[in-house]
């Protein structure tokens, strides 16, 4: 059997690519993903200390948001963690669910453990919106 260095490189690149895809789109341990109806119900029943966090960019937020949401864009989240108390439930959403999942992953790594996200993002939301 001969050793083919190029094949080894190809396998390593493929494995790295698969690992990166998993990190991006794989599950986030402890994250609850809620359908719009369940998300709305939980928000209504949540203590007023719960934080509704919109991780879209400011321009997206200004075009319409879920009432009482706080806007901290994903791009600024790492720098603004002090605005998010660890002892509160955090409800995340974005446009489609991709950025809120990334935000949840960041929050979990920083010790937040009461996190839920809106499945499908605000695109799946049929409740009230600000304008």
Automatic annotation (TrEMBL):
TM segment ranges: 6-23
Keywords recorded for this protein, A-Z: Membrane, Transmembrane, Transmembrane helix
Matching InterPro entries: GlpE_sulfurtransferase, Rhodanese-like_dom, Rhodanese-like_dom_sf
Residues covered by the Rhodanese domain: 46-131
Coiled-coil stretches: none
Record bears the keyword Glycoprotein: no
Domain of life of the native organism: Bacteria
Pfam families the UniProt entry points to: Rhodanese (PF00581)
Transmembrane as UniProt keyword: yes
Record protein name field: Rhodanese-like domain-containing protein
Species in which this protein is naturally found: Paenibacillus aurantiacus
